[in-house]
Amino acid sequence: MHSYPDASAVVRALAPDEPVILNRPHAAARAARFFVEKFPGKSLYAVKANPSPELLKVLWASGVTHYDVASIAEVRLVRATLPEATLCFMHPVKTRAAIAEAYRVHGVRTFSLDTHEELDKIVAATTNEAGEPATDLSLCVRLRVSSDYSELSLASKFGVDLVDAAPLLQATRQVADALGICFHVGSQAMTPFAYVQALERVRAAIVDASVTVDIVDVGGGFPSIYPGMEPPPLEDYFGAIHRAAESLPVSYSSELWCEPGRALCAEYNSMIVRVEKRRGNELYINDGAYGALYDAAHVGWRFPVRSLADDAEGVQEEDFAFYGPTCDDADYMEGPFSLPAGIKAGDYIEVGMLGAYGAAMKTAFNGFGQAEAIESSDEPMASQYRGDRRDPRHSDNVVSLR
Ligand SMILES: *Cc1c(COP(=O)(O)O)cnc(C)c1O
Questions:
Q1: Start-end ranges of CATH 2.40.37.10 in the chain?
Q2: What is the predicted pLDDT for the residue at 394?
């Protein structure tokens, strides 16, 4: 893949008519090494955040050996891309055929569940032809926890309630070689306390059920940096999780896992778009709600932007909203996105931090969605991993944990 020093160099060389996705393998590698070295346990990459095979190879080369997959297509993709990777099928609702193929064809041994029905399904799909149940399953019971500290809730859809957890943990213990408890605090958790609170619920579940637990999996939710969302440094999260996990009654015998999606890949991509029309402070650009800007349209996510015009430095900026290229009124991103007041049709914009739930969301709706991928060697627009982060709220956020 051709590499350019930055987005401006791409525009000068190509003046692209279609959006361009910029890949920053160095940024993904840095994030992966950070988790591998500093998280006090094992880090599984949550593939749904960005399933690009190039990215998967970068993460593997940087030491990420375990992958959280949620569909049989993700199982096949990661197996084909990384033949030696350990795959964990962490969607609590799977088809019997998907479980059987994952187990028999792709060597998957770790599955999550949040009901007795799913447990029965996993046992049936992994029992051999002689009627002998599998003896090598790692089964993680997904506990429902609060999403109060996260920007995107994952609390309502999955997870067994604490009051119903004990019988499910006991039944799972009977058939599992290794028993795990997992949860997800919601995406972009803005304080480490989210994990501390969830681990308190794990403690209650373990005590209630009186089972030994081999895996405590704190899920995803580790944040990245976006306009208006400056989380504390990730070390604070790791420290708080470590202390809370150490105090669990099973800490001497259990492994600690996490499943970062966003935090491993947000910095991997940005996108170059072109302004096709301006109407007041609304810019009609060539990517949008059906492209990489799904979250900007649907949950009002604010991605960082910068003008790539030569004279953009130091000029006065104004707030803009974006329209995407399709004919749908919903193809609208309110922002606000701060850009030079004089921006006009034909100008290019770089939208940053699109590696997680951005580049992966592109559809071909209405004939749009093409985008070339090009490598860029510059820094992402923001980084959790540069080692120079000083967050003014840092001390406020951790004080309650100590
Ligand atoms: C989506 C998801 C993740 C990744 O979440 P992030 O907020 O991107 O870190 C991890 N685990 C499970 C089960 C998920 O569904």
A1: 3-22+267-376
A2: 42
Tell me the two tokens of residue 55: 């990215």
Q: Which are the contacts of 160, defined by CB distance < 8 A and separation ≥ 6?
A: 114, 115, 141, 142, 143, 144, 168
Ligand 1: residues with CB < 6 A are: 46, 48-49, 68, 90, 184, 187, 219-222, 259-263, 356
CATH 3.20.20.10 intervals, the chain? 25-265
On the question of pLDDT at 237 being above 60, the answer is yes
Domain 25-265, CATH class in plain words? alpha beta
Positive or negative torsion for Cα 274, 278, 280, 283: negative
Residues in the chain: 402
Q: How far is the CA of 401 from the centre of ligand 1 (A)?
A: 24
User: Any idea which architecture 3-22+267-376 has in CATH?
Assistant: Beta Barrel (2.40)
Overall pTM > 0.90 = yes
Q: Which of 259, 264, 268 to mutate to test the pocket of ligand 1 (most atoms within 8 A of CB)?
A: 259
Three-state DSSP at 53 gives helix
> Residue 381's pLDDT is what?
96
What is the rounded CA–CA span in Å between residue 23 and residue 28?
9
- DSSP class per residue in 181-226: EE----EEE-STHHHHHHHHHHHHHHHHHT---SEEE--S-----B
Residues 334, 279: Cα–Cα separation, whole Å: 14
Is residue 88 among the annotated active site residues?
no
At 361, list the tokens.
Answer: 């969301």
DSSP letters spanning 313-354? TT--EEEEEEE-SSS-TT-EEEEEEEEETT--TT-EEEE---
Instruction: Give the tokens for residue 313.
Output: 């430095």
